[in-house]
Amino acid sequence: MANSERERTADWFRRFAHAEGSESPRYRDWALGIAEDDELLALVAKLPLSKRQPILVLTCARVAGVPLRPFTTARGDFRALWPAIAKLAQTRSTQTNDPRRCTPLLVALERIRGPIALIEVGASAGLTLFPDRYSYSWNAPGRTITSHPADGPSTVSLVADIAGWGANPPRRPTIVHREGIDLNPLDVTNPADNEWLEALVWPEQAERLDLVRAAAHIVAQSLPRISAGDAVAEVRSAVARARKAAPKATIVVSSPAVLVYLDPAEREKFATYCARAKVRWISLDGRRVIPRIGDAADEMGIEGDFVLSLDSVPIASIDPLGRQVTVYGASGLSPAEVDFIEFERENWGPTRSKESLVRKVWNLPLVRYYQRLYGIMEQAAARRYDSILVRSFAETSEL
Known about the structure:
The chain is an alpha/beta fold. 47% of the residues lie in helices and 16% in strands. The protein has 3 domains: 2-91, no CATH class; 99-327, Rossmann fold; 335-398. The relative contact order is 0.10.
């Protein structure tokens, strides 16, 4: 049994190294080193199963004092500091609180009438409870979409690649009530909690660390309530509190990449509650975490491993940390077709620089670009999307 537990743990660390670990050379090196070290594997395997997560073990190692050196030289530090690492693992949990997830959240909130009472499950320190306080810079083909709070640019600027977005910047939500739920809430004004929050940022991610620090400063000025509790058990109370605090608000429950940590039966309970409680539910999860959402994404032709959904209806494929979003609207056009139309809207008519711009953005000669665009403009869906542009394009083409 001991050998099989060690092998399962080793396989877990190897899979982490070759998947998520690809974003951090140091963590990849550490994970692969642990996977081949029988003594350390035996120690990790003594932890409860939920505490053997590679990212949790590696983060605890950093906080315990293991220096960011190659595993071959840091191995002795792992062994010497193991009691402190194990103690931290028993009391802490992975609580990725990346403010960049506010990009897909904003994409979904765009479709919801406000004012809004926002409840987040798995809120950690609450950094994604403030999508209205951040600035956004979205890179779409040939154009940039920017949005700032009413009082000017935020110290937190979230950059993402986005496809399938329309002409206007995202509508900024009016949030009148905020509450988070987490098994182990973090308080950004508590030095130990703040240290853990920052340690969850991977070693090489300096830009992400700056974002977390800036977002934590914004949250500290207006601390939301973050209730300790299980998602399924606590969400009912949180919704009741929201209805009492903001009776005219639309209640929105957000679950960003957290349902995967529940067993399938509990996920279904959560989804069923959100449907019956008449709240709007925004889910950012792996494609098969809620099977019916994954099946619906298949039918809609939505690709990717992670799906953004609103009330169980897929609306975008996403990067789980909010760095990329491909939006699928109700127009009947594909995201690429929307991008073609929006590119033409911004670069209407023949210009001296258009040929080079088309080559740069679309990697097409100008004649092929117009052939593709003409095919899009002939669709009824394009006429519904922008009848004036389609008519103008048709009139110009006839000249």
